[in-house]
Amino acid sequence: MAMTLRLTDDQDHALTLLAASQGRSKHDAAVRAIVTAAARMLDDARVDALARDLVDDYAAAEARLRRARG
């Protein structure tokens, strides 16, 4: 699927530097950056979900302990 990516001069310069540092075209560098960011965000979302579950579990356990202690 084709799309147009509109960048400021500074963003284009950053993409040019990124591509050069990777030895890739600007297109390949942009695609790789998008995929990497998405993977990182999805991993972060999974970690956040696990942490919320654990916090809920620990909070419930702490509440039970407090009730047991009276």
Report on the architecture of this protein.
83% of the residues lie in helices and 0% in strands. It is mainly alpha-helical and 70 residues long. The chain has a domain at 23-69. The longest helix has 44 residues, at 26-69. It is rod-shaped and about 65 Å long. This is CopG family transcriptional regulator.
Descriptive keywords:
70 residues, mainly alpha, 83% helix, CopG family transcriptional regulator
Explain the layout of strands and helices:
Elements: H1 9-22, H2 26-69
Helix pairs in contact: 1-2
Short précis:
This is CopG family transcriptional regulator. The chain has helices spanning 9-22, 26-69.
Task: Tell me the span between the first and last alpha carbons.
Answer: 63 Å
Tell me the strand percentage band. under 5%
The quaternary structure here is: single chain
Structural class, by secondary structure, is mainly alpha
Integer-rounded radius of gyration: 22 Å
Helicity range of the residues? over 70%
> Could you list the spans in which at least 5 consecutive residues all have pLDDT below 50?
none
Major β-sheet annotation: none
**Which whole number gives the mean pLDDT?**
90
Shape: rod-shaped
